[in-house]
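User: For my dataset I need records formatted as: sequence, then structure tokens, nothing else. Please produce one.
Assistant:
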Amino acid sequence: MDTLTLWLYRFAIWSVPRLPEQFGYWLFARAGDVAFYFNTGARRAFEKNLTRILGADAPRADRARLTQRALRNLMKNYFDLFRSHRLTEAQVWAQLDSVTGLEYLDAAIALGKGIAGGSAHFGNFNMFVNLTALHFKNKHEVVVPVERLEPPAVFELITQQRATQGIELVPSDTAGRVILKKLRAGAILGLAIDLDPTRSGPIVNFFGAPAQLPDGAAALAVKFHAPLILGFIRRLDNNRCAVAIEPPLELERTGDLARDTRAAVEKIVARLEYWIRQYPDQWLMFQPVWEADKELGAQGDK
């Protein structure tokens, strides 16, 4: 099975770049429609998350429509992922409808302390990392901790694919020392701010209910005085992207690392809520985030 997965991925990164762009987006959107009708687990998880965002009174038809759009967006992201290593710099820029806030990255990197960059599983989120790597043109490393994929050969293939774009992927289970060293050397870190697979972050109020969210970006920024910059990228109807890089968050540094880190996470949550509330179909989260929903899922597995 591992061998089959590896060959399927190899076939995808060979064949997908050869598809005409508009046909590719159409084809992968149809794959999203298939997932909507047959991947009931992902559909139910997303609709449950939507209930947290929109409220329990949101019409079921609206939740279904947004879920289908989200699955289409997710599959379009795979189209972009499989062809990303073949895109020229000009093609990447052509995918961007608008970019705001690059001046914040420039000002932050000039401080010489690296950047604790945070983004969510929102829109075409891989494009934000690609843009950062292109903008700095390999003058500064872009390092992204990610969960290991199985089989290991596929993870290695993806790592090599990303390296051709100037992006270094590091396994999240061994990333601690690596990202600290890179940050001190002035690198830009790309850290997730909306999912905590390690279950080590603080439990905070997220859309009115307790949720455990990651604190890696917040803790690094607080402890090492690195700028904490968030970026959000929307996929538009024409499949181009609108990038918004926000000003560095103003952080408290009282000397109490735990307290100051939690305060930073709460500021991150406020920005997450702002963007997700406006564009719920862009938040591509197909697993439980809130504590109560995780407990229900665990009970259902018994």
